[in-house]
Amino acid sequence: MTLAAILSVLGNLILSYFSQQISQDIGMTDAQYGMLTGYAYFLVQGVAMVLQGYAIDFYSLNRVYVVGFGGVLGAGALLMQGFAKDFNVMLIGMLFSALGSSVFAVLPIPILSDILPPEQISFGGAIFGSNPYLAEFLAGNLAELCLKKGISWRWAVVGLGTACGASSLAIFAFLREPPIGRFIVKRAGDRLSYGSLGLGRLIPLACYGAICQRYYTKLPTISLYTTAIGACIAAACVAISILSRVIAGDVSNRGYAIGLTAMTLTFVIGEGWQGPLSVMITLALPPEIRSFAISLFFAVAQLIGPAGSVLFGIYLTIGDWVKGTPSYVTPARIYMLVALMGGYIGSAIIYILAVPAVNRDMEKRAEAVRAGGYPEVCAFCILCTRVVAPPHII
Q1: CA 364 – CA 350 distance, rounded (Å)
Q2: What DSSP state is assigned to residue 178?
Q3: Which helix (H) or strand (E) holds 386?
Q4: pLDDT tens string 255-288
Q5: What is the fold of 1-180?
Q6: How would DSSP label each residue in 197-227?
Q7: Is it the case that residue 222 has pLDDT exceeding 80?
Q8: In sequence order, which residues have a C-beta less than 8 Å from that of residue 206 and are 6 or more positions away?
């Protein structure tokens, strides 16, 4: 699944390195290129994530088959883009690519929570969670290799599509749908449950995961607090990054170094929520709505994130500022400070406010388990609650 996810993401990322060649081959404008790789892609992907999550839970679909089919669909989309002769075919390929890659965004997380032993969830999740970073790393190096060797962008995309298809077929061949049922309740001394909270990406896994594992029994909502604290620190790093040139006294090299360092810290610290928090949510949810709820959570996050750049463009367009002029710099800085810092700080406040609700939910779950059942939430209405026999509890 990790390999298929890397290849699926890589197929979209590598297009940005061949924008000039693609524009020349199929006569694509900058606006059309932005449609292929910009917000439209994430919008389609986000909607697809929610729909597939709902369908999986409501119709009890085989999640492994859904992942495999999505990988095959994404592979076909890459082949379509590689052999495209005009923009319309590229656009259709982009739509299918977004649909196919949506299965890798969140669905493997609930699969891993059921297929792996509790003591291995952290390691397996870290491997899968690293796929966007590995794809970003490989995209630039692969594009550079293709340019040096004179390999056409078409063959690069076709090759990725073929590899993605092969790895997706391997999912059908070697993986089986695991029993659904593991979830987490508040139980003191259970080290296996909070050990699984380390699911995430490489550096955030080491930082946030270690803290959450150490203090989980004393504070089950620790990942909400660490996420909020990380967001506040990231907000400060954002301010440093935006004002790096001012801090450096208009010395370009020094300002670039300060900005790059602050941006790196923002990314590492601010993205930590995708590790411990996502796993806490996954294991805390009833199995009957797990895929849909996780898909909805990540879809909303994915749609809100890229929206900042869209609003940024609208803001600068309305202001009629000319890019590169002194009058452009000040409003751009103000917007980025307000939007980015406000986003991080606002999310921190929301996470802190959510702690009492999460505690109440965990107490209800614990009471239901002690009574011999657990609350099951209807896929149509979260107000519909009934008690059934408990599944395996971490």
Answers
A1: 22
A2: P
A3: strand 385-388
A4: 777 877 777 677 666 655 555 666 677 767 777 7
A5: Growth Hormone; Chain: A; (1.20.1250)
A6: GG-S-HHHIIIIIHHHHHHTTT-TTHHHHHH
A7: no
A8: none
